[in-house]
Amino acid sequence: MTQSTPTVTGIKLKRQSKLLEVTFDNDQTYNISCEMLRVFSPSAEVQRHGDPILVTHKKAVNIKALEPVGHYAVKITFDDGHDTGLYSWQVLHNLCSNQTELWQQYLARLRAEKGSREPLISMNIKYS
C-alpha cells in the first residue's frame, strides 16, 4: 500500500519573521523560512531538469503573495520577483518534513561553491 501525501489544510504567512506556517491534514504543522522556499523553488528556472542551480543571496527574501492553485498547490510570489514555482502539497510536505537535512545540504553546497546567503546590496552611484 502506498502512503499518500498529506493535504495542506492551512497556510499562514508570518511576514515579520519571514516564515510560512503550513498545516497538513495529518495534524502536522511546520514553520519553513521564505528563504528555504525560495532557494528550493520547484520552478523550471531553478530545477533545470534535475540539475538545480544554486540560488544565492536570498537571506532577506520574503513572500509577497500566495495564490491557491486548485486543491493541490500554491503559487508563491516572492518580493525578489520570482513567481514561477508551483508548490504542490507533495513538494511542500517534502520541504517541510526534510528541511533540516535539505538545509544542511544547501549550506554545504554554498560553502563548496563559495556562495553567500547575504543579500546583494544595491548601491546608488553618483557621478560628478
UniProtKB/TrEMBL annotation:
Cited InterPro entries: GBBH-like_N (IPR010376), GBBH-like_N_sf (IPR038492)
Keyword Repressor in record: no
Gamma-butyrobetaine hydroxylase-like N-terminal domain mapped to chain residues: 11-93
Entry keyword set: Iron, Metal-binding
Superkingdom field: Bacteria
GO function terms (MF aspect): metal ion binding
PANTHER family, per the entry: OS02G0197800 PROTEIN
Protein name, per record: Gamma-butyrobetaine hydroxylase-like N-terminal domain-containing protein
Source species: Shewanella frigidimarina
